[in-house]
Amino acid sequence: MNESSVRAVGWARSLPMDHGVKAARDWAREHLDALGWTATAPDTVDAVLLTVSELVTNAHLHAHSDAQLIMALDQHCLHLAVHDASAVLPTPRDPGTDAVGGRGMLLVDALADTWEAHPCPHGKTIVACFRIPGDGDPEH
Fold first, then answer.
1. What is the pTM of this model?
2. Within 10 Å of residue 95's Cβ, how many Cβ atoms?
3. Measured by CB atoms within 10 angstroms of the end CB, which terminus of the chain is less buried, N or C?
């Protein structure tokens, strides 16, 4: 195998606005279960599922858009991407102590190893990356 090639596996799902965030979490959990992470790395699973919730909620609530959820696993990371139809890029902000919302991207920033936003011709994609458990992860 060519050293520069990357072996990856991935899954994708479209989530219309009338589908709840729970459907996104359940779908992601199925794939994390199949990877064995639920048993071996429950903290990572919790971080991924909370990130799924936040990013899909942002797509539905703030972008008023369906969400396309993609999970891809390469040799080092699980890449979680959510695409929506809004061109407005998210930024972590300080919502203050009295605000009911506004903490989603702060949570993503705290949970994911890295995240970034990419503008696209028809919206944006937010990608959060999580190191593979056991790949320098304190859980293993």
1. 0.85
2. 13
3. N
